[in-house]
Each structure stands twice: as structure tokens, then as C-alpha cells.
Amino acid sequence: MALFSVFKGNPEPPTAVNITWSSINFKTILQWQPKPSGYFYTVEIHGQTSDTKKKCIMTTETECDVTDVLRNVKETYTAHILSVTSSGMDNFEEPPFAVSDKFTPYNQTVLGKPEIQNYTQKGSKLTVVFKDPLTPYTFRNGSFKSIRDIFQHDLQYKLYYWKDQSSGKKDATTKSHTFEVSVDSTKNYCFYIQGFIPSRRENRYGQESTMLCTSIGRTILDEYGAEVFIIIAVVAIAVIALTIVLSVILCKRKKAKAAREKEPLNGI
Predict the structure, then answer these.
(1) Which of 13, 88, 148, 185 has the fewest CB atoms within 10 Å, measured from its CB?
(2) Strands 156-163 and 170-174
(3) Helix, strand or coil for residue 88?
């Protein structure tokens, strides 16, 4: 826990703690604690080979979007979180600061969810077409770069697929935007896609796409399972049994009524 100290008669504000990098598809947010009271924060980004850049100058927030100063994604950076008082701006003394862990966007940003654009199951072939996640970085014409534009051949994708109502998964790998896998033509399949970087030691696998399922002539059994048919069968048997019981009771009542009508009237 940071404590106030006295330096040349002026109390120094506490330095930041719990500094973390949060990065998805190269959009990178720096976060820390505590919330300042009576002082401000200024963020400095230091690259191993690049000039120091300042962000979120004199802020009272505890997070800072540093995406635009990390454009050299293969560079390794550290962040200095400066604790600055308004009076400290009037002198040339270096304010107290805390230093983050090192961060290399190319190696550490999390791969976001791929977007499945189209899928078909025709006969024994399942085809899935998808799109790369976009990054905040742009080309000269203003269009956004995808993660493939940055990772290029380092980027691959896995398709995980399985028979609907089953738990046995299979997988396939591609470097393109399309999967084509052989399946059982009589079964429906569920699937999702996940990007990965084989060369990474950490954060190798990205976020999973939305899970989808095919629907080739789905039956009630596919949709609801065998339990529904068991319930229907039990109800049907109960209805039949009740019908038989009621029929027997009505038949006996009719016979008894007929027998009473045939008996001679007393006193005649």
C-alpha cells in the first residue's frame, strides 16, 4: 500500500498500484488503482526503441486508452503512471511514478471473436465461411486492418464441430476464411470457430465465435429428445386405460338397467 512521504517539505501523492494491460484485437487499455484525491495521473509510454509518448495527461480516471501510441505492435513497452499535483506542475522535479509490466501487443493482445458469415450442410459436406476480427488500426485509405493483415501467416483458425445432441468434438484447422469438413449426411451438426497463434507461448487461443447448428430436416426427436416421446407414450397409455375403464363401467350400468326393466312390477 502506497503511503504519503515528505520530499523537501511537500507531501508526495501515492503512486499507482495494480497496473494491468487489457488488450483485444490490439485495442489496448491501461488500468490501475487507486482513484486519485487531490492529485492527478499522467501516463507515459516507453518503448524499447521508440520515443516516450504521453497520454491521459492530468487525468482523474484510473484507465487510459493507449492504442494509438502502440502502433509498432512488435515493440515492447512499459507504462509509467505519474502521480502529479497541480503544484508539481510549477517545478522541474520528477513526480513519483509506478512502472507497469512489459507489454508486447503482437505477443499479448487477445484474438477477438471471428464472425461466421455463412454455413451450409449439403450431403456429407459442412462448409463454414467466416470473417477476421478488425483492429483499431487503419490503412492509408481509412479502412480498418483485420488481425490477419497484422499477423499474416502466423494466424490460423480452428473449427470445432460435433453431432447435435452429442458431446464428441472434432476439429479442423485452416489459414483461409473457409472450412470444408466431411460429416454424416443424416445428422445435424453444431460448431464454433476460434483463432490461434501457434508460435505464441501465452494467449495462444482467442475468443470463441458464436456457436451455431445446422438444421437439415430436423425431426421432433432431434429437437426435443426421446424424453418427449416417453411422456407422450405414458399419457397415451393412461388415456387408453381410462377409456377402457369408463367403457366397462358404462357397459355394466347398461346391463343392470336392462335387467331391472325386465323384472315384473310388484303388486301386478
Answers:
(1) 185
(2) antiparallel
(3) helix
